[in-house]
Structure formats: C-alpha cells, structure tokens
Amino acid sequence: MSAFAQALRRLPLTVSRPFPASPAAATGGHAVIERARPLPLVLDGVVKEFAGRRVLDGIDLRIPAGQFVAVVGRSGGGKSTLMRLIVGLDRPTAGRVLVDSRPVSGLRPDVRLLFQDPRLLPWQRVAGNVGIARGPGWRERALAALDDVGLAGRGDDWPAVLSGGQRQRVALARALVSNPGLLLLDEPFGALDALTRQEMHGLLRRIRDEHGFGAILITHDVAEAVALADRVLVLREGRVALDLDIGRPGERPDALAADFETRILKEV
Ligand SMILES: Nc1ncnc2c1ncn2[C@@H]1O[C@H](COP(=O)(O)OP(=O)(O)OP(=O)(O)O)[C@@H](O)[C@H]1O
Ligand SMILES: [Mg+2]
C-alpha cells in the first residue's frame, strides 16, 4: 500500500460523504450485525437504599438468557433504580446482581440501556450517532443497524430533522451495533403517540426475534407489557408483588391478553 493510501486510512472517518443507498451495498451483501449471545440475569437479595431510605427491599430474580421481561409499577417504585443496578451505573446496598453468572462491575457493551429520551448528539449525523463507539467497520455496522430499524438511507441526516419515533429508532440502532445480549428499556415509548408506539412494538418484536437478545422493559402501560413480554413483574414497595409467566407473544392465544392485563392491574 502506498504511503498516501496508508495516510488516507488513518484519517478520521467523516460522515459528510453521501452514503450508499443500502447497507448491503456498503458491505458487499454481508450481514454485519450478528445474532447476539443472550445473557442470563440473576438478582440475589438485592437491596438499594438512598440516605437510609429503602427503595428496593430484597429482590430475588432469575431471568433466563433471551427472556423478555416487562416491569410495571407505580411511579417512584424503584424501577429505574433496578435498571441502573443491572446495567452497572450504580451498586446495590446489599445483595448481588449477576449478568452471565458474573457480578456486575460497570458498563459493558453487550448490556445496553435505552431511555425514554433518545439522547442523540445533535452535532453528529444519524450514522455517527449510531456508530458512536467507532472501531473498525463502524460505518458499515451503523448503516446495517439503521436498515434493521427501518431507517435505511437516513444515515446522512441530522437528528434534528427526524421525528420522535425515528429518533428512538436511531437510539435502538445505536444499541444494536454493540450486539447486546441483554437490552434494558426504561419507558422507551413513553413520549410517542399511540400509532407510533404500535409501530415500535412491531419493530421491537421483529428485532428481538431476529437478534435473540433478552430484554427488560419498564412501562406504565400494562397492554404494552402484555403485547411485548414473555413474563411480567409488578414492583410494589420495593418488592416483586407479581411474577407472571405469560408465554411468548405470537405463541399464545390473543384472547388471553385481556385476562393477563386484569390480573396485572389488580397488583399495580
Ligand atoms: N440517586 C438518588 N438519590 C436519592 N434518591 C434516589 C436516587 N435515585 C432514585 N431515588 C429515589 O428512589 C425512588 C425510586 O426511584 P426510581 O427512579 O427508581 O422510580 P421509578 O419506579 O423508576 O419511577 P418512575 O415510574 O416515576 O420512573 C424515588 O423515591 C427516588 O426519589
Ligand atoms: Mg423510572
């Protein structure tokens, strides 16, 4: 390789270049987002206190690799706190959190947390936001992930021109590029209108089937919990008040949904 070509390779990749129409073209037709290795999660007597006030009061949970769990509960019940412990942003006061049989000791790329607010960098184009971790082949991976979430061809746009639902898709694509084995979603669709929510439900179900990751979804919407999850937990006063196995969506009779919703609402 010439010195010029080598220098060119060392240049930081910019996003100002127009992207190819499809990521398949960018990657020569190879899929660049692999199927995840789903990660199991165990919580062992997890307690969390803030200034002596107990928010989580001994949570014991076993979540097998690849399971989709929804967590519902009243505001202030400790749902987001639980997520922060699982993703490694905070430590329990007592008890243990184990991802893939190892105690959580900080952030890791294959456990990703999505918030209600997509948190995109306004000075980065869409592809740059998705491939924020950079690394070899980042742009191809970013484009493939965008294609995956229905945003093919939007890599060169600025976040500001996207709708709320599209921005949340970008945030999802950004999580997908690191090939998560466990995806945590803290009310990710809370700010979206009903129709866009429905679309996002369909998208999440498809992506989950394709990638095989496990997920924990916090939601205030019991219908959403039943539409997406295999299992629903109700968190009340720092404890698990209900742990209901409802079976995988699409593999259970739709007629059961209303009954599940009633049982869950009774416990919230
Ligand atoms: N860093 C912190 N310092 C002190 N108190 C905190 C901290 N984080 C959370 N809390 C408290 O812990 C309790 C649970 O908060 P958390 O955010 O987990 O609730 P939540 O179930 O996610 O509520 P919502 O449904 O409104 O999002 C609240 O009373 C909150 O004030
Ligand atoms: Mg919360």
General description of the model:
- The chain is of the alpha/beta class and 268 residues long.
- The chain has a single domain (18-121, 179-267), classed as P-loop containing nucleotide triphosphate hydrolases (Rossmann fold, 3-Layer(aba) Sandwich), CATH 3.40.50.
- Helix content is 32%, strand content 23%.
- The protein is built from nine helices and ten strands.
- The strands form two sheets. The protein has a six-stranded mixed beta sheet with strand order 6-7-8-3-9-10, sandwiched between helices.
- α5 packs across α6.
Summarize the structure in short.
Helix content is 32%, strand content 23%. The protein has 268 residues and is of the alpha/beta class.
User: What is the first-to-last residue Cα distance?
Assistant: 64 Å
CATH class: Alpha Beta
Please count the beta strands (DSSP E, at least 2 residues each): 10
Name the CATH superfamily classification. Answer: P-loop containing nucleotide triphosphate hydrolases
The bound ligands are: adenosine-5'-triphosphate, magnesium ion
Order of helices and strands: HHEEEHEEEHHHEHEHEEH
Number of DSSP helical runs: 9
For the residues shown, what is the average pLDDT?
Answer: 89
Helix-strand category: alpha/beta
Give the key terms.
single chain; globular; binds magnesium ion
Indicate the topology.
Elements (H helix, E strand, L loop, with lengths): L2 H8 L12 H4 L14 E10 L2 E11 L4 E6 L5 H9 L6 E6 L2 E2 L7 E4 L11 H5 L7 H11 L15 H13 L5 E5 L7 H18 L2 E5 L3 H7 L2 E6 L2 E7 L11 H11 L1
Parallel strand pairs: 3-8, 3-9, 6-7, 7-8
Antiparallel strand pairs: 1-2, 1-4, 4-5, 9-10
Helix pairs in contact: 5-6, 8-9
Bound molecules: adenosine-5'-triphosphate (ATP) and magnesium ion (MG).
